[in-house]
UniProtKB/TrEMBL annotation, chain A:
CDD domains: PBP1_ABC_rhamnose. Residues 39-294 form the Periplasmic binding protein domain. Pfam families: Peripla_BP_4. This is Rhamnose transport system substrate-binding protein. It is found in: Cell envelope. GO terms for molecular function: carbohydrate binding. Its main location: other. Transmembrane segments: none annotated. GO terms for cellular component: outer membrane-bounded periplasmic space. NCBIfam families: RhaS. One of its GO terms (biological process) is rhamnose transmembrane transport.
Automatic annotation (TrEMBL), chain B:
It comes from the Bacteria. Part of the ABC transporter complex LsrABCD involved in autoinducer 2 (AI-2) import. Probably responsible for the translocation of the substrate across the membrane. The keyword Cell inner membrane applies. Residues 326-336 have a biased composition (Low complexity). Residues 340-352 have a biased composition (Basic and acidic residues). This is Autoinducer 2 import system permease protein LsrC. The chain crosses the membrane at residues 12-32, 39-58, 64-82, 89-113, 119-138, 159-180, 210-233, 245-278, 290-310. Keywords: Cell inner membrane, Cell membrane, Membrane, Transmembrane, Transmembrane helix, Transport. It comes from Promicromonospora thailandica. Its main location: membrane. InterPro entries: ABC_transp_permease.
Length: 338, 352
């Protein structure tokens, strides 16, 4: 451990010395044209299929924009593991850093240093505190997630009947916010759908599985289960797929394609939602390029063109919203691997 | 001692009561195809773990690492399916059981040779084994699509209305119960738990037996890992977290004294079935989510309190019998009935 960190530090020093000269020269030359824009992509950790998908999106955007994207990152997603990579990128004088933060504050100092050296910082997927970055590309809004899940379940149960929610833990902030929004929306827009119970699977496979069984038994007329958590939806689908409720009770919510592939293929699950990480990486890179080019500054109301995704507007606190959650079903699930 | 007065009968009765009441409220709990299957299937994994834990607890030890061993072997099972898709199911299952045995042996070796309390050692290995899984799996996860369909089908398949996993659990239970009650090694485990010092003085192979008990506990946790992968179809690095407490709860509710020397694996298995059936019954009868844990906790405390009451009553009776009879009379009671009650009696005699 000690040895590795000494080596890392040594490498960083050598890089710093070697690249300080380069970046000095590059900075002057780069002021005129933007043909040598270099963007560093820093996911939470490497080897994570989710971030492989977002990096693929970043590469796609880079190809269209004619900029270079380089992916670096730690092996494990620990709070300060990203700091050396941020320092190195700053010393290299990269034009922009696209980061999914492992911690909202732990990497703040390093990011500030990078920004003072002229690097633009865009966070995606997981934000830092707003003062540490120029833009945050947000994958989904609470309203978007709540609306999409209701839309899916309403479609799958034919617009009427009893539904239940299988959530994560009872104090999960995100899930509770989405559930509250869904309850509001149900009351106002879906009068024929009745939410009979909300149970908590604690984001544990086994607990979620058993809660699903209990739900189905205590509510014989249940038409659908919405699970706004990836663990819950997979457990519910697994239970339903091997029970007599398969094909009779709809399961939807937020899931990842790899977890849900089996159940979409065997017909237990018709469709589920999540943002598309490829689009997220694509948009983050487009936003970073727009910042570097000076098209936007990150101020509220700035607009920029993001290739195939169209035009985006920067919202409050420097946030750019990717859009509605993406719907995965039998027709497109094979295109994703995360 | 009549069958009805045995501890196991009490738990079985409580189990039947829970099933009966819930079925009256919601007939599907027992009479629907899914209800019947879940009733038998849900406790299968915990029963296997509880049998292993009971063997360890009987020797006056405890294995808190079983949840982590289950997580590690469940992940190993999934990993083998991905990395070596040509391996037959049986080989994969045996590999996981072997891995569990090894992890159990590590626990056993430290406990037996370093003479450190098992509570501390296995609390340590709980974190070590979980750490290994976390490092190995990272944010990766085994999904249902990664495992062969035939394997996943085992998780829910039924033979003559009885789920395969339940049959596995029943076979494990019968084999271990038979060993504990009939073999010399099994009886020695009780003797070690009753009084470790006396067992050592009597020349029993204490270390070898302890190693064996922990290895068996590990092997069964490994088997439970395979069953977990088959049943839930998803294995993340957190699989089995917190299960050790459920297992110890099941063993205690099942009448295995936490200070060793008495209890049966059948009781532990019934305890596991009771705990999980209550878990499933409470939401069906409409007890709110937040109260369910409290009810389970009350049940565990109730079981321990009952144990205590029974123990003091019996020791008072034994003391009275001792005072009435001249010494020598008690020896007639001793070897009369080989079985759990015999061991319980002996423990109480020792403490009285």
């Amino acid at each position: 451990m000690k040895f590795t960190s000494v080596v890392t530090a040594g490498t960083a020093v050598v890089l710093a010395l070697g690249l300080a000269a380069c970046s000095g020269g590059g900075g002057e030359g780069g002021g005129g044209g933007d043909d040598d824009v270099a963007i560093t992509m820093l996911p939470k950790n490497l080897g994570n299929p989710y971030f492989e998908a977002s990096t693929a999106g970043a590469q796609e955007a880079a190809g269209e924009l004619g900029v270079a994207v380089d992916e670096v990152g730690p092996d494990a997603a620990s709070p300060d593991a990203q700091v050396p990579f941020i320092n190195t990128a700053a010393q290299q004088g990269v034009s922009a850093l696209v980061v999914s933060a492992n911690d909202p504050t732990a990497i703040g100092d390093a990011l500030e240093e990078a920004r003072s050296a002229g690097t633009k910082v865009v966070t995606f997927d997981s934000d830092t505190e707003p003062q540490f970055r120029d833009l945050f590309v947000n994958q989904a809004s609470a309203e978007g997630i709540a609306d999409k899940q209701l839309e899916l379940i309403a479609e799958q149960i034919g617009g009427a009947g009893e539904i239940a929610i299988l959530s994560a833990s009872a104090n999960a902030t995100n899930q509770n916010a989405w559930i509250a929004l869904m309850e509001e929306k149900l009351a106002s827009d879906y009068p024929d759908i009745e939410l009979v119970e909300t149970v908590y699977g604690d984001d544990d496979d086994q607990t979620s599985f058993d809660k699903t069984a209990a739900l189905l038994q205590s509510h014989p007329d249940l038409k659908g289960i919405v699970s706004p958590t990836t663990v819950g939806i997979a457990a519910a689908a697994r239970y339903v797929s091997t029970s007599e409720y398969k094909g009779k009770v709809a399961v939807t919510g937020l899931g990842t394609p790899n977890q849900m592939r089996e159940y979409v293929e065997d017909g237990t699950v018709e469709a589920f939602a999540l943002w598309n990480p490829t689009d997220l990486g694509y948009l983050a890179t487009q936003a970073a390029a727009a910042l570097v080019a000076g098209d936007i500054t990150g101020a509220e109301g700035d607009t920029f063109e993001a290739g195939r995704l169209g035009e985006y507007t920067v919202g409050a606190d420097g946030e750019v919203l990717l859009g509605e959650p993406f719907v995965y079903d039998a027709s497109n699930i094979a295109d994703f691997d995360f | 001692m009549s069958l009805l007065r045995r501890r196991e009968a009490g738990i079985a009765l409580a189990l039947l009561l829970v099933i009966g009441v819930t079925t009256v409220v919601q007939p599907g709990f027992l009479f629907s195809a899914g209800g019947w299957r879940d009733l038998l299937l849900t406790p299968a994994i915990l029963v296997v773990l509880a049998v292993g834990q009971a063997v360890v607890v009987i020797t006056r030890n405890v294995d808190l690492s079983v949840g982590s061993v289950l997580g590690l072997t469940a992940y190993l099972t999934g990993r083998l399916f991905i990395d070596a898709p040509d391996l037959p199911l049986v080989v994969v299952a045996l590999a996981a059981v072997a891995a569990g045995t090894l992890l159990g042996l590590v626990n056993g070796a430290i406990v037996a040779f370093a003479r450190v309390p098992a509570l501390v050692i296995t609390l340590g290995t709980l974190y070590v084994y979980r750490g290994v899984t976390l490092t190995w799996a990272g944010s990766d996860r085994i999904d249902a699509g990664d495992m062969p369909r035939a394997f996943l089908r085992l998780g829910t398949q039924q033979v003559l209305g009885v789920p395969v996993l339940t049959i596995v659990a029943a076979v494990v239970l019968a084999a271990v119960a038979h060993y504990l009650h009939t073999s010399r090694g099994g009886r020695q485990l009780y003797a070690i738990g009753s009084d470790p010092a006396a067992a050592a003085l009597a020349g029993l192979p204490v270390r070898r037996r302890l190693l064996g008990a922990f290895a068996l506990g590990g092997a069964l946790a490994g088997l439970a890992g395979v069953m977990f992968a088959a049943r839930y179809g998803t294995v993340s690095s957190g699989a089995g977290t917190g299960m050790e407490l459920q297992v110890v709860g099941a063993v205690v509710v099942g009448g295995v004294a936490i200070f060793g020397g008495s209890g049966t694996v059948a009781g532990a298995a019934l305890g596991a079935m009771l705990l999980l059936t209550i878990n499933r019954a409470l939401p069906v009868v409409g007890i709110p989510d937040f109260w369910q844990r409290a009810v389970v906790g009350a049940l565990i405390i109730g079981a321990i309190a009952l144990d205590r009451v029974l123990a003091t009553r019996r020791s008072r009776r034994l003391a009275a019998a001792r005072d009435a009879d001249p010494p020598g009379g008690t020896t007639a009671v001793g070897p009369a009935a080989p079985g759990p009650d015999h061991d319980r009696t002996r423990t109480e005699e020792a403490t009285a």
